[in-house]
């Protein structure tokens, strides 16, 4: 499959802008991570490290088994990566703190016969079949919270009945949305952080249109369209966000 990708920081970040998204691709796999930004009010995360550090370490731990074509389930790869990252700063940080840095995960691994996917938190994966049928693999549990107050998010984070993210709890990996699709049934795959998927999720375009933009005009054009919407938006929540896309297309 041909792979095209883009990742950029939110345009309203003060310089030097830090992109808390990360894209990683290689032979037979693609991965996007979206680090959770710190709340606007001060929160003691118990960790001396930044969200960008957590995202980079998580990607580093995932890179080795993916590049060496491990046959272990994607959930195991993610659980092992979370375990390794937790161990790397357990001596300096309070890894039991519920506000520790965290990240979403969207990952695919493919061979001539199958495409495996894993989605943890709000970074969806969209697949289009050769016949044009679009399927969205998403994890919307954070949207089911009764509210988004700091206390509710803290209480429900990585807990049964709440939502799950990659942070310090390896068990979160086994709560991911996973599945396998026949390779012949997949013509294009898009992995998106929510700064890019808002084109459909916030701004009212269909997932079919989102994939059409990607496959005909490319990831850069999708992000440019999102930024145009962002600039005119009066919606609640963050006006701008880091945005990342990986597009895999072809045989």
UniProtKB/TrEMBL annotation:
Name of the molecule in the record: Protein phosphatase 2C-like protein
Pfam families (UniProt xref): PP2C_2
Protein's organism: Kribbella pratensis
InterPro entries: PPM-type-like_dom_sf, PPM-type_phosphatase-like_dom
Domain PPM-type phosphatase: start-end pairs: 28-221
Alphabetized SUPFAM superfamilies for the sequence: PP2C-like
Taxonomy, superkingdom: Bacteria
